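Figure 2 data, in text form.
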Amino acid sequence: MYAYLTLLNGPQAGATFPLDPRRKNCIGRGSDCDVVLEDPLSSRRHILVAQEEGAWWVRDLASRNGAYVNGQKIDEAQLAEGNTLRIGSTEFAFHLSRQVPPDAAPRDVNVTQTLVRDQEVAGAEAGDLAIAALGDAEHVQDFLTLYQLSIRLLGCDDPDEVIDISLEQLQTRAHAAITGFLWVGDDGRLRPKRVIPDDDAVMVTLSRSLTDLVCQQGRAVWVAEVSAASETDSLAHYADAICVPLRHAGATMGAIHLYLERGRFQPSDLEFTISLAHIVSAALVRARKQARLQAEHRRLADKSGSFDELIGDSPPMRQLKEKVARVARTTGCVLVRGESGAGKELVARAIHRLSPRADRPLLSVNCAAIPSELMESQLFGHVKGAFTSAESDHRGWFQQADSGTLFLDEVGEMTLEGQAKLLRILEGHPFLQVGGSKEINVDVRVIAATNRDLREFVREKKFREDLYYRLSVFELHIPPLRDRGEDIERLVEFFLDHFRRQHGRPGLAVSKEARQKLLTYHWPGNVRQLRNVIDSAVVLADGDEIVPDDLGLRDVGGELDSLRLDVWEPRLIAEALKRTGNQVPAAAELLGVSRATLYRKIDEYKIARS
């Protein structure tokens, strides 16, 4: 009967190892064993398998991790056909056969990986090198190197750049021939992602058992590899490798690998690499998060058709852009006025982008969307227990925008209590959160916007006069789309190009009749309405052209095109002046307003009197 072992796991699974009945067969990591393992969890001399009185026996040689037969830990056991034998993380099946066993694996392997040291990578390790730096000159230099690396990585938003900088620094410090970043593949193996030099990726390999140590157990390993160049070469080629996992939230993201062709690494090289791995893990997580946010921002921007630049070159828009550029360099509050949909938030973003605060946050708040009873809480924050539903502390918009810019849209809808707090902030005073007792100071530039007449609100006691003058240090008026002439066609082309790509209709065009209708329409909803009209027309168009029926624009004959007062007021004033022969007192009486109000409205809407 022939006896042999079949390897059940690892890259050489299926290999067979004949057992000699005339001697004791030793299995372990030692080079003098009959079967040499690449398993770091096995001992150098782990077990003996021998035939005694016609039966095969296995004996554990006081190994570190024990030996198991059919899952049961043993000191000595008799083997039978089909028994499984586990040594460390390596599993064999024991077989007896009347026939010669299949081709056997070589007993002497050309390359073995011997574990010099393995060390758990935990949060506490990050401080070990810093403590040691206090009394060791070599560690002082390592500490400074890691500090400089941290500063460099703080400025990196590209994950690939984080890896490249770290590998180059590590290669210089450890004098390694090869450094690499390995990622965990779907099969759980570590695979080279970035290797320096590029053509040496084949050298960056680990055995399956060492991979399990790094990936599953999160341990850094220092491996000595021994290989023979040829059967006649008496000089062995020694090489060291260090592999340290990059851990985050209890999982392995990848690993850093160093390879030394000749000589030996030092314990300080392993310590340095572990400390560097902590820094790289944090930098890589941050860079990947930043990359995801940028990709998501681009996706949302592409989907929504939003744009950051003020599109248009008509005289009113050129004048507005010039004012925006001048106002952006100042520090005072800005009041942006214009009809709904004209682009007030777009102007606010342009001011912020051109200001010294461009690298800090810009937050937008629609005051009209906040219930009056929650206005103060949302803007200025509240403490836990301030009111029934205040289950935790809340930082208001002003605290979140500290050092940046806060855009308050529809500021006329703010409550009088909120207006009082806003005035104090704009005057440089601290404020209290709702229910709080600690004063809070913030540095926020406020850009307010409204489509209402705040001066009328002041007269009606709905808006504080002192706040109005504080907000309107600089006042910008956005022209309605109907007054922007050739800009309409530019915006049509811009939105058409965007929605053709978004909806997969690159060849879609606009018919001459539809284009004419777009250019002559008065656009009461301004740019927002134009955007939505083009979006729906691209979807609804049946053929290769957008026709007038696809535009969804109502015929204004006999039908109200808008219910907005600021749309109808100039029309009614013009009609009253026409009927009274441009006599303001008579027109005021016809409209039911005072002469002073009518004069102010004529100036506000720039109504010409012939």
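Caption note: The first strand starts at residue 2 and ends at 7.
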